[in-house]
Specification:
about 350 residues, alpha/beta, Spore Coat Polysaccharide Biosynthesis Protein SpsA, Chain A, Nuclear Transport Factor 2, Chain: A, 2 domains, seven-stranded mixed β-sheet, six-stranded mixed β-sheet, about 35% strand, globular, NTP_transferase_dom
Length: about 350
């Protein structure tokens, strides 16, 4: 069992402006609220998940958030009301202490972000490394984030909140192998008064675990796969990532980008592990085989012209019509690309039209 805690206690989640007439987490992009986007990373976990939402009572009463959360979590979410200011995310999460099994895995996520990643793969990695805790990281130098320092083997040795000690910032995602690891670290953090700007941050729990010689590692997110909704500019930037007729893949990647770069640096980030490509009776399986085929096909062309790329109304598919030129010879192709829930390419139906 994995317990996932989402804290909705931060005042910034309910900010309003002249541009947005509702609290930030209720802003909609493509008919989905920002809150829903924050939950996507855990929506496809294949195992049993206990979902807990920490929600300010006054905000719930004012905006009727409980029914929305219930629908978004398919009726499986449990809401715990927060009364007043708790002093930070650590204090808020401790309100769920009676709901956490000491031996269960615990994940704490933020409600004002979007992460495009395969969480099953990430958790499997944390488990395979016998990590006691794990975080997702992205590249930044801005001191509004928490940062990690790590050894050559990837083990994290220090976490600094609002202080840049590396280029690896922590996304709003914290994994704990056992519930009691988190609870003990949180209690020690509070007993020591380990606050930053008067707030108890989850990053402080990691430092407490480091002092106990616990193993903490990170998972670097692909460039462009993390969006934090910290202000209106960031929300607009996220909205603009949904470019019309250009469905995005992991890290903001698009199928047609392969044609521009003529290479695929990280096939595992673009293709599902079981990806297949069908080409007039021939079949290619696996991310490396499909990647090599496409690179060979495209790399040999002297000129490339993309006539069409758009979503298919049926299912999570994209069609692409393009021409490859070899001297005076023009070959026209039609590809139908099926995407997984995580945005990776699952299959390609590759057809020569002339």
């Amino acid at each position: 069992m994995i317990t996932v805690i989402t804290s909705l206690g931060g005042q910034s989640l309910y900010e309003m402006s002249s541009e947005f007439s509702y609290p930030k987490i209720l802003n909609e992009i493509n008919n989905k609220t920002l809150f829903e986007y924050s939950q996507e990373i855990i929506s496809h976990l294949p195992t049993d998940v206990r979902r807990i939402f920490l929600l300010p009572k006054d905000k719930d009463d004012e905006y009727q958030l409980s029914p929305m959360i219930s629908v978004a979590s398919h009726g499986r979410g449990e809401i715990l009301h927060i009364q007043g200011d708790t002093g930070g995310a650590v204090c808020s999460c401790l309100l769920a202490i009676d709901k956490i099994d000491p031996e269960d895995e615990v994940i704490v996520i933020s409600a004002d972000q979007y992460i495009r990643a395969d969480l099953t793969e990430i958790i499997d990695h944390f488990r395979s490394q016998s990590a006691d805790a794990g975080v997702l990281t992205f590249t930044s130098l801005h001191p509004k984030w928490a940062f990690i320092r790590k050894q050559a083997d990837g083990r994290i040795t220090e976490v600094a909140e609002k202080r840049t000690i590396s280029r690896e910032a922590i996304a709003g995602f914290y994994y704990f192998r056992k519930g009691h690891f988190f609870m003990q670290a949180a209690q020690r953090c509070i007993l020591k008064g380990a606050t930053v700007n008067g707030q108890y941050y989850l990053s402080g729990c990691l430092n407490e675990m480091i002092l106990e010689n616990k193993k903490i590692i990170g998972w670097p997110l692909e460039e462009g796969s993390y969006h934090n909704f910290y202000d209106n500019h960031a929300i607009k930037a996220f909205a603009s990532s949904f470019r019309e007729n250009k469905p995005l893949l992991p890290a903001g990647f698009c199928y047609s980008d392969i044609f521009g770069m003529k290479t695929i640096r990280h096939p595992e980030a673009v293709f599902d592990a079981g990806v297949t490509l069908q080409d007039n009776g021939r079949s290619y399986s696996g991310s490396m085989a499909v990647s090599d085929y496409l690179i060979h096909l495209i790399g040999s062309a002297e000129k490339i012209s993309i006539e069409l790329q758009s979503p298919v109304s049926e299912g999570n598919k994209v069609i692409m019509l393009y021409s490859l030129y070899h001297g005076d010879v023009c070959s026209q192709f039609l590809d139908v690309i099926a995407l997984s829930h995580y945005g990776k390419i699952q299959s390609v139906q590759h057809s020569l039209l002339n």
